[in-house]
Amino acid sequence: MQDPADLLTASYNFVLPEHCIAQNPVVPRDHSRLLVVTPQSHRHCHFYDLPELLEPGDLLVLNDTRVLPARLFAEKPTGGKVEVLLLEAKSATEWLCLVKPGRRLGLGQRLLFGEGLLEGVITGIDPETGGRWIQFETDPENFERLLIKLGKMPLPPYLEHSTATPEQYQTIWASKLGAVAAPTAGLHFTPELLQRLALRGIERAAITLHVGLGTFRPVQADNILEHHMHQEWLEVSAEVVEAVNRTRERGGRIFAVGTTSARSLESAGATGELVAGARRSDLFIYPGYHWQIAQGLITNFHLPCSSLLMLVSSLIGRQRLLALYKEAIAEGYRFYSFGDGMLILP
Questions:
Q1: Which domains does the chain carry?
Q2: Engineered SS bond to 243: which of 69, 205, 210, 293, CB 3.0-4.6 Å?
Q3: Is the pLDDT of residue 226 over 80?
């Protein structure tokens, strides 16, 4: 029976000391700590222990999205400064963007980027996000080239003291450009760790979910049932479907590497069978959800009252998760994007 408190956003709050927020990644990446959670117990390990914590025949499903240099700086023809954060593509050159200051930027407003190297015009206003649709006036190939030249990596605001390089905010397998934030559970992996996992007989497969507003948008409603996730684009290939089916047939376990991989698998497997294809998803996972595909999860430590915290709670229970977070804080674990990890075993 579900605890009524599980549906209250305030029930997912906790106090996190500022010094627990990791500003930079551990080097090497796999030397981060790992809190290993089983149905009955938990223990403290390191991420490089992962091959021994999994079993031959298990499958890791990771997200191969690559973070865009999505933060741009523009000027209005009259000289006013504007900051633009790309959120979501309607086409290769038309994007939903958060802009600031935004109130005075109406339809038809022209913006100049890189002293005129790139121009854009506001074509619409999105009522859900308050963002602006911007049509960039160039071809797709040149837009990507200029974006890489002019854009900055959109590090989360809590990384205000970070000295991390842009590549440290990418997974080592990041290949498909389109995210505005990293799938951070994947940041712990190194080539050497992947090799050890393969030698152990642990397979891996890659889905794509371009991380956008849906992942990091805060839950503002008092009752979580009133929260609506912003849609994000994802794709599950036929190869991933085959890998999942093979794993099931041999009795292996399916682990999502990160909450974005988990949401992708569950969105594409709502009937219990994984279906290949590209789709948009606004799936919101919280306690009471019946998991269909993913059996285990590798994840980081998340913000209070976030949809990510609610997703993890659906696997192990809200009260237990908050107790584990309390212990992790006492043990000096590092939180958020560059922080430590958690492995949830079935």
A1: 4-67+163-344 (3.40.1780.10), 71-150 (2.40.10.240)
A2: 205
A3: yes
- Read off the pLDDT of residues 157-213 as tens digits, 9 standing for 90 and up: 888 889 999 999 999 999 999 899 999 999 999 999 999 999 999 999 999 999 976
32-41, 95-104, 246-255: range with lowest mean pLDDT:
95-104
pLDDT band at residue 214 under the 50/70/90 scheme: low
* pTM value > 0.85: yes
262 vs 156, residue with greater confidence: 262
Nearest CA-CA partner of 269 in 297, 232, 287, 244: 244
Largest interatomic CA distance in the chain:
65
Strand partners, 62: 206
